[in-house]
Amino acid sequence: MKPSHHQPTPHTSWPPQALTVGNCKHLSSLSLQAPQLASLCLEENGELQQATLLNISVPALSMGACSALTQLELASDTVTSLDLRGCGCLRSLQLNCPALKSIDAKFCGELSDECIQAALAHAPPLERLVLSVCPLVGDKGLAALGVLSGLVYLDLSYTEVQDLAPVYQVIGVECSRNVTGMLLLLWLW
Hints:
Blueprint: E1 18-20, E2 29-33, E3 39-41, E4 50-54, E5 60-62, E6 71-75, E7 81-83, E8 92-96, E9 102-104, H1 113-119, E10 128-130, H2 139-142, E11 153-159, H3 165-178, E12 183-188
Parallel strand pairs: 1-3, 2-4, 3-5, 4-6, 5-7, 6-8, 7-9, 9-10, 10-11, 11-12
């Protein structure tokens, strides 16, 4: 038998265009600037407490089940969808994402009114906002919804919301265009 002279194929794609980081033990902090990434998934990092993601060029970011995450800073011109489901300790959410259309923060038990206000301070063009099972979200957090003129889906089930006036204001703004497109899911305790 002739010896094989197999040459490894050189890796021609550096820096990488896709990054998946999941179930990483002892990863408590992440700071990333990656304008070349086309795909980023940071799900199920149970010890991740703080993440700073700047100049990220992905269309969607999934950080679901990062149960210890307390602080997220995200700046991106391209992120349209942010999945934070199960980030139960999230207390600080700083977003500078002018293209952001959807946030799913279901089961973010530490998400407060102040956190919602800070997250929406840059008035992203949100169409979909899910705050289901966020028991610290109440009336003050809803005051921030006034900047969301394009909102068509809002889930406030299992929150402390009692005053729907801010929601009605959003609906009133939409009334002139498409009130039938607004879906409101609300569970009052």
